[in-house]
Amino acid sequence: MGNTKITFIGAGNMAASLIGGLCKQGVHAHNINASDPGEAQLEKLKSTYAIHIFTDNQLAVKGADIIVLAVKPQIMRQVCEQLAVAVTDQQLVISIAAGITSDSLIRWLGVHTIIRCMPNTPALIQQGVSGLYATKAVSTQQRKQAEQLLSAVGLAVWLENEQLIDAVTAVSGSGPAYFFLLIEAMTEAGIKLGLPADIAAQLAQYTAQGASNMACQSTLDAAQLRQQVTSPNGTTDAAIRAFQQGGFNQLVETALRSAASRSQELAQQLSE
C-alpha cells in the first residue's frame, strides 16, 4: 500500500489483527496510527508493531489517508460526532462495525467517502472473509486500498447493494458459530458412541478443517465433493439421509434468515 497512512480508531482484537496483517504485508509501522482510551492495549500494539499510538482520536486522524472505525456499534455515533470536525472527504473511512449504515456514518461524520465492511472472527488468524460496500463518493483507488487492507486478514469480496450486508452477516459474519456448533454436536455424538472426549474433539475439529480446505482449494463445488464421498447405501449415505430427513437444509435456511432479519433490526436501532 506504499506510503498510505492508516489510522485505526479503536485498538481491540480486530484492529490488532488488521495491523498485524498489514505489517506482514510490508506496510511500514510509521504509516500506521492507533487511537484508543485503553492505554494498556495501545502499549501492547506499540511494543509488538512499533506503530504510533494516541488517546486523542482527532490527533490520530490528522494526515491519514484511511481511517478505520473499529469501535463497538453502541458507541459509534459518539465517536463519529467527535471526529466530524477533523475528518474530510479526501480521507477514506472504513467501518467494521456491524449494523451501522453508510447513511448514518455520513450524517454523523459529515463526509461521503465511506466503506462498510463485515469481517468475521477467523480474521483474527488471517483466515477471515469480509464483505465490502462502498458509497458512490469512493474512488477506484480508494476501493483498491480498502481491498488490500482487508485482504491482509483473508478474502475480501465486494457488494454492489448495501442491503446485502445483512446476508453477509448471516452467512459469514455469524457463520463461524454455526461450524463451532456442528463441531460441538459431532464431538458429543462421538463421545456417546464411545470415543474418549479428547479424541472425539480432535476428530471433529480436524475433519472440519480438512473439509473446509478441500472446499476452498477444489475446482468442484460443495455438492460435488459431498457426492464423491457418498457411496450409495454406505455409511456416509446413511448419515446424509438422516440429516435430510430431519429437515437439515430448511433448518439452515431458517437460521440464516433469522440472522439476516436480526441484522436488519439492529441496523435500524443503531442508526436512530
Automatic annotation (TrEMBL):
UniProtKB keywords: Amino-acid biosynthesis, Cytoplasm, NADP, Oxidoreductase, Proline biosynthesis
One of the entry's Gene Ontology molecular-function terms is:
pyrroline-5-carboxylate reductase activity
The question of whether Cell inner membrane is a record keyword is answered with no
Establish whether keyword Cytoplasm is in the entry: yes
Q: Where is the Pyrroline-5-carboxylate reductase dimerisation domain?
A: 162-266
* EC number(s) recorded for this UniProt protein: 1.5.1.2
- What's its catalytic activity? L-proline + NADP(+) = (S)-1-pyrroline-5-carboxylate + NADPH + 2 H(+); L-proline + NAD(+) = (S)-1-pyrroline-5-carboxylate + NADH + 2 H(+)
The Pyrroline-5-carboxylate reductase catalytic N-terminal domain covers which part of the protein? 5-99
**Pathway membership, UniProt:** Amino-acid biosynthesis; L-proline biosynthesis; L-proline from L-glutamate 5-semialdehyde: step 1/1
What compartments host this protein? Cytoplasm
PROSITE patterns listed in its UniProt record: P5CR
Q: What class of enzyme is it?
A: oxidoreductase
What InterPro entries has UniProt attached to this entry? 6-PGluconate_DH-like_C_sf, NAD(P)-bd_dom_sf, P5C_Rdtase_cat_N, P5CR-like_CS, P5CR_dimer, Pyrroline-COOH_reductase
Query: What family does the database annotate?
Result: Belongs to the pyrroline-5-carboxylate reductase family.
| NCBIfam families, per database record | proC
The record describes the protein's role as:
Catalyzes the reduction of 1-pyrroline-5-carboxylate (PCA) to L-proline.
Question: What name does UniProt use for this protein?
Answer: Pyrroline-5-carboxylate reductase
